[in-house]
Design a protein that fits this description.
Blueprint (H helix, E strand, L loop, with lengths): L30 H4 L27 E4 L22 H9 L23 E6 L2 E6 L6 E5 L16 E7 L2 E7 L19 E10 L2 E9 L8 E9 L28
Parallel strand pairs: 4-5
Antiparallel strand pairs: 1-2, 1-9, 2-3, 3-4, 5-6, 6-7, 7-8, 8-9
Amino acid sequence: MRFWILTIAAFPLCAQTPSPAPQVTRPPAAAINELGTRGAGPRATVKGPVPRRPDGKPDLAGVWNPDSNFIGDIRRALKPGETLPIQPWAQTLRDKRRSKEDPEANCLPTGVPRMAPYPWSIAESGKVLFFVFEGNIHSWRQIFMDGRAHPKDPNPTWYGHSVGHWEGDTLVVDTIGFNDKFWFDFEGHPHTDKLHTIERYTRTDLGTLVNEVTIDDPGAYTKPFTITSINRLEPSGDLMEYICQENNKDVSHIDGPAHLE
């Protein structure tokens, strides 16, 4: 069974021995990008040119390891010198949240842009791209690439309604229709159902997928802001079965504040 040594108190694990006392830990900013997900050793670096599809567009297929900044604290993914433009009520809510309340710790989907600390993959079928996540419930997103518009009144969901298109070598994913249930990160930063995200995926070489996300949520933030993650290719090329709900014993042992300040 896979587990994360640095995040054992921060994320749900299955069939683990209960901890003797509550505790809350945080992975260092670069920890998840520096460690491989198949063990505690250093992550292998995958080198090579960007693969191309028959139509000349970059081939984004593969299994990717997520950036730690999209797991622990999205403030680390801001541009240097920027601060999170959070509204006072949202900051108060974030400060009150406790780790055991985290939907991701309770085996629910991460939403967007948050990632669980497990690999994810991109697959294509016709005019739809699928993002498949190993963590939690093997959840998935579908990105419609057939030119359709968003529905006028989408049903609020964990991953929203996503449409995509190419701008040169960059895949642009526009998403609305979110519910307000997921947290942006383990720190507990909230959002509302007014959330609108635009993700820009660029494969800069064989082993690197950069994702720049613009977050626009006038319900919880004073202005749009942009965060960036760097996903690294998983050399094994496989997703493992991980069922968070199966014998999940962690939640009762992470009853601390969802933040350290």
